[in-house]
UniProtKB/TrEMBL annotation:
Pfam families: Multi_Drug_Res (PF00893). InterPro entries: EmrE-like (IPR037185), Small_drug/metabolite_transptr (IPR000390), Small_multidrug_res (IPR045324). Keywords: Cell membrane, Membrane, Transmembrane, Transmembrane helix, Transport. This is Guanidinium exporter. It is a multi-pass membrane protein. Its main location: membrane. It is found in: Cell membrane. The chain crosses the membrane at residues 27-46, 58-79, 85-102. Belongs to the drug/metabolite transporter (DMT) superfamily. Small multidrug resistance (SMR) (TC 2.A.7.1) family. Gdx/SugE subfamily. The keyword NAD does not apply. One of its GO terms (molecular function) is transmembrane transporter activity. PANTHER family: GUANIDINIUM EXPORTER, SMR FAMILY PROTON-DEPENDENT DRUG EFFLUX TRANSPORTER SUGE. One of its GO terms (biological process) is xenobiotic detoxification by transmembrane export across the plasma membrane. It comes from Larkinella rosea.
């Protein structure tokens, strides 16, 4: 269950990062509210996952899911630039996440 909490927490990190971008510096109400709700839920689920997972696994996985997810949202939804070096960077993050998962007991 800890891994499910962690994955959902990471996906919520993508939600709050996107909604923060849409909030225009917290000047738009709805995206600002979504940002804070998603942040609270993300932190809460991360906290629950840390009951069973080590900090050195949970936190890097959470930030990695968020980083790659934000990269994909930026690229696919916001039209941010895509080039081979940025794609390679995202692939390396995913490789690191896989290694982190494989190397964690349980």
């Amino acid at each position: 269950m800890a891994w499910i909490y962690l994955i959902v927490a990471g996906l919520l990190e993508v939600v709050w990062a996107y909604s923060m971008k849409q909030s225009a510096g917290f000047t738009r109400l709805i995206p600002s509210v979504i940002t804070f709700i998603a942040m609270a839920a993300s932190f809460g689920l991360l906290s629950l996952s840390m009951r069973a997972l080590p900090l050195g696994t949970a936190y890097p996985m959470w930030t990695g899911i968020g980083a790659v997810g934000a990269f994909l949202v930026g690229m696919m939804i916001l039209g941010e630039p895509v080039n081979n070096l940025r794609i390679l960077a995202a692939v390396l993050i995913v490789a690191g996440l896989i290694l982190m998962k494989v190397s964690t007991p349980g």
